[in-house]
Design goal:
Length: 99
């Protein structure tokens, strides 16, 4: 019997949930779908991401989740966070670089 190792993901902590043509992807094991809502007054477009579960325990992400719970409440499905996509990406990148 020969074992073949699965290829690891190129992106370590987050991925866009939709591809270039807008089709939704299946959520892989170990990731949580997150919808970055941004500021409604600025007219930011909502963007979907996959965030690795290990990042949910980070203090800045935990604070963002608490803010999301106060603003949107607890809802089933995709997790909404009150943060624009660029800021969410930058936060995750900084967390990953600090490890």
């Amino acid at each position: 019997m020969v074992w073949i190792r699965k290829e690891r993901d190129a992106s370590p902590c987050y991925r866009r949930l939709t591809d270039e043509i807008g089709c939704k992807k299946k959520v892989p094991k170990g990731y949580v779908p997150v919808l970055a809502c941004g500021d409604d007054a600025a007219g930011d477009e909502e963007q979907r991401f996959l965030v690795h579960v290990k990042l949910l325990k980070e203090p800045c992400i935990a604070g963002l989740l608490e803010e999301a719970a106060m603003q949107f409440g607890y809802q089933p499905g995709v997790l909404r966070v009150p943060c624009d996509a660029y800021s969410l990406q930058q936060t995750i990148d900084l967390i990953y670089q600090g490890r």
